[in-house]
């Protein structure tokens, strides 16, 4: 892939994630607007002499507070994603990197009615491009989701492996949900990453080698 093609692929990924986040924020506003409308209705009813029902007011207020917390989490994730472009490479906490990729992929999983969750994670870090790492993990999750069905669960973890790291992707009752790196082969090669399947455990492994370890 040429440098220009790689740049465009990165921009398309940034745009896809940004569009997804904007949809999530729009949904948060919609729920808040609905709850505010209910409070207004209760107020009008009270002005007409009908008794206020505190539990209904409390429920509407709790809904607004819950959506504000949800919106705050979405904005924090988007902020972290935006700052992943600040440096070409740096020491990256891979557990935090995986958590961010999972958070940014949750809406895509929800649309497929697949539960996406973090599994066992061991502390591990390595020098990498934060943006490319997020893109690699997001692409891996998307490829795994394509092989799952509504009602399935995708569990992702990470552990140190040979100076690098291994990300595990599994779905209870299913074979390894990620069979190869075909959907993101160019990016995988650029990051010294490869995919394998442990047939005994039915777990897919995304191995990320430490830079220079294959030389």
What would you say about this model in short?
The chain has helices at residues 3-47, 54-83, 94-111, 130-145, 185-190, and strands spanning 90-93, 115-121, 125-128, 153-161, 164-170, 193-198, 203-208. The protein is an alpha+beta fold.
Describe this structure in words.
With 215 residues, the chain is α+β, with helices and mostly antiparallel strands. The protein folds into two domains: 3-84; 90-208, Histidine kinase-like ATPase, C-terminal domain (Heat Shock Protein 90, 2-Layer Sandwich), CATH 3.30.565.10. 53% of the residues lie in helices and 20% in strands. It has five helices and seven strands. It has helices at 3-47, 54-83, 94-111, 130-145, 185-190; strands spanning 90-93, 115-121, 125-128, 153-161, 164-170, 193-198, 203-208. The longest helix is centred in the first third of the chain and has 45 residues, at 3-47. The mean pLDDT is 93.
List its traits.
elongated; alpha+beta; Heat Shock Protein 90; single chain; 5 helices; 215 residues; 7 strands; five-stranded mixed β-sheet; 2 domains
């Amino acid at each position: 892939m040429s440098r220009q093609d790689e740049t465009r692929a990165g921009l398309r990924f940034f745009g896809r994630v940004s569009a997804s986040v904007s949809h999530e924020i729009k949904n948060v506003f919609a729920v808040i607007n609905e709850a505010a409308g209910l409070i207004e209705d209760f107020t009008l009813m009270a002005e007409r002499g009908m008794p206020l029902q505190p539990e209904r007011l409390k429920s509407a207020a709790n809904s607004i507070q819950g959506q504000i917390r949800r919106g705050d989490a979405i904005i924090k994730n988007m902020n972290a994603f935006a700052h992943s472009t600040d440096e070409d490479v740096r020491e990256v906490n891979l557990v935090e990197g995986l958590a961010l990729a999972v958070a940014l992929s949750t809406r895509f999983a929800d649309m497929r009615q697949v539960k996406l969750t973090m599994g066992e994670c061991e502390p591990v870090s390595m020098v990498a491009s934060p943006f490319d790492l997020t893109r690699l993990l997001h692409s891996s999750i998307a490829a795994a989701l394509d092989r799952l069905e509504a009602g399935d669960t995708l569990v992702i973890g990470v552990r140190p492996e040979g100076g690098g790291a291994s990300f595990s992707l599994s779905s209870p009752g299913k074979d390894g949900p990620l069979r190869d790196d075909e959907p993101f082969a160019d990016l995988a090669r650029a990051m010294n990453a490869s995919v394998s399947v442990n047939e005994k455990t039915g777990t897919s492994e995304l191995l990320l080698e430490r830079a220079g370890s294959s030389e």
